[in-house]
Amino acid sequence: MELQKEINAQPDKTLLQKMKDTLRLYGPGIVMILTMMGAGDLVSSSVSGSNYGYALMWLLVGSLLIRYVICNIMGRFQMFNNQEMTILEGYSRIHKFFPYFFGIASLIIGHLIIAQMIKGSGIALAWMFGVGDEFLWSIGVVLTSLFIMGRNAYRNVELVMKVLLGVLTFCFVGLAVYSGPSVGGIIKGTIGFGLPEETGTYSVILVGLALVGAVAGSLTNLIYPYFLQDKGWTKPIHKKIQRNDLLFGFICAIILNLAIWIVGAEILRPNGIQVESVEDISRALSMHMGQLGSWIFYLGVFGILYSSVIGTANGYGKVITDCYYKITNKILKKDQKIEGDPTFKWISLFLLISPIIWSIPGVTGFIALVLFTNALNVVGLPAIAVGLLIISNQKKYLGKATNNWFENTVLVVTTVLAIWGSYKILMSFFA
């Protein structure tokens, strides 16, 4: 916080220099957004754009709003609660069900999310370099991640994430600009609030639920307060910088999601290309931009997927470890960080290594794995939303820093939609 004031108070620095200094100061919001923006955004947005044009874009806007509000509420709880609780401790004080549920669910979802990212990263690297097997490249991704997740894990992850943000901006925004987006189509799709007729390979309901699961973040929302802890933003004085940092990440998420969607709507849809594999998107781009277009696309694919590999392993590892603490009544020493505990190291190691089985040739398709995982994500939203609605309105912990009416409305609406989405997912299994 003091550093931000110092940056703003230096009159001899240009606006660009101040922006660079501020970007160096920022971190948790960038790490959070790029962790969330994995295969789900890549596939769900491109599938939505290729199948339905801009018709489902209102779901993207609504989901991003939900993401921002939920993350901001969780961040405020982390900084303002008067007992220095973690977010999981807040949930566990409601009922012991929460650490058990979140611990098991995070282990399953974290495993599947990283499985998507590792598999997709291997596909991207194999195509970009034109040599080697996709499975071998996936193994290389895991080994590189183990190195980054060594000592000072969060600091290393944050540094890599900022580099990947630049790569993603160059790749996907460049492709979107070249595609020639329809401003009118974007506006109509944003305020249309409707579901189009079934025209694609995947049903509207599945694509819609996958989009909500991917963009609203689901269980991944729980990892944000742990990034704030790692950054040292744990007091009320950090509220302004935390909010600005998260807002910056939120704006980046909007831009990148729109860019991916535009590619689907303006290049894939007119050519009648249904997205059943990453190669489908590359094939359409090569028709319009040649080999360069495909190479830029795959570079962006690698960036968006790899950012989620290290972010998920780090964040979910901390959520699962904290759930273990609450179940076993283990207490960390004062000022001790979770990532310094051996339990976290073993859990993050499992999360990184075990998903490699999904990259074995012939096990499953990349797109199918992504859509299934992101739709399954919705099942966890009711517990998150209901619990957060309770703990974020408790004045005995937060004083005057409880929710306002708008935040409570978002949480209530999210809870209703999440229950409906969970019901649809369960019914589809028995249909």
From TrEMBL:
GO biological process entries: iron ion transmembrane transport
Record Pfam families: Nramp
Taxonomic lineage: Bacteria, Bacillati, Bacillota, Bacilli, Bacillales
GO MF terms held by the record: cadmium ion transmembrane transporter activity; manganese ion transmembrane transporter activity
TM region(s), chain numbering: 23-43, 55-77, 97-118, 124-147, 159-180, 200-224, 245-264, 295-316, 343-360, 366-390, 410-430
Keywords: Membrane, Transmembrane, Transmembrane helix
GO cellular component: plasma membrane
Topology of this chain in the membrane: Multi-pass membrane protein
Name of the protein this chain belongs to: Mn2+/Fe2+ transporter
Subcellular compartments: Membrane
Principal subcellular localization: membrane
